[in-house]
Amino acid sequence: MTIKYRRMLLKLSGEALMGEESYGISPKVLEFVASEVKEVIELGVELGIVIGAGNIFRGVAGASKGMDRTTADNMGMLATVMNSLAMQDALERNGIITRVMSAIPMQSVSEPYIRRRATRHLEKGRVVIFAAGTGNPYFTTDSAAVLRALEIDAEIVIKATKVDGVYDKDPVKYSDALKFETLSYDEVLRKGLRVMDAAGIALAREDGLPIMVLDMGESGNIKKAAIGKQVGTLISE
Ligand code: UDP
After folding, report:
1. Ligand 1: residues whose CB is within 6 Å?
2. Could you report the per-residue pLDDT of 14-42, keeping only the tens digit for each?
3. Which CATH number fits domain 7-236: 3.40.50.720, 3.40.50.1000, 1.10.8.100, 3.40.1160.10?
């Protein structure tokens, strides 16, 4: 099987890790993601992963209850480290060599993020999990995913969600919602589509980095994306 993308960046939201639960991490989901990742690695794809923390803590939620925003965001970033370690554990149990690199230095549990080191890991076939977002408050892990993808020269960002692409309105609420096969960055921003935060989209646009939005729950989707099949919605120039 020939692959289309040699190096990919997978973005998983924290909520995706929750599965059917209302908080935290579902071991079943972790196991499922690990097997999906394994399929892609076996094709020879080099993979970076960025994980959010909506299943544990979001900075805006803390700030809305009166917390200092920067402190709350720091907590959100630390929560991504927990998710990253859980993902690393699941991947390694499936025989996939993994490194967690944190944007907030945390030497006893992860490596610090150093770009050259990250690309070396990828070249050796190790999956690199980029933890702690960008390391800066007021950003999201969507922006972190695009930023790291650009830094490591990934050819695509795969945004794994619970829906099978981008719709003109919420497909859960509206039965007449229409799915887009493709979208330009400008369309996403103009129509105010809630695919990814605007900062992430704008950053991807600067370098023409494609973003594929697909359903994580459907087995084989990431592999299909890797070999160039159209799954979900492709956002590009
Ligand atoms: N966060 C941050 N800077 C970053 C990335 C994340 O401050 O570069 C914080 C922010 O508080 C955010 C939380 O970490 O709410 C979790 O990330 P995100 O909301 O992107 O998670 P997701 O929605 O993907 O689960």
Report:
1. 13-15, 52-54, 58-60, 73, 76-77, 80, 133-134, 136-137, 139-142, 144
2. 999 998 888 999 999 999 999 999 999 99
3. 3.40.1160.10
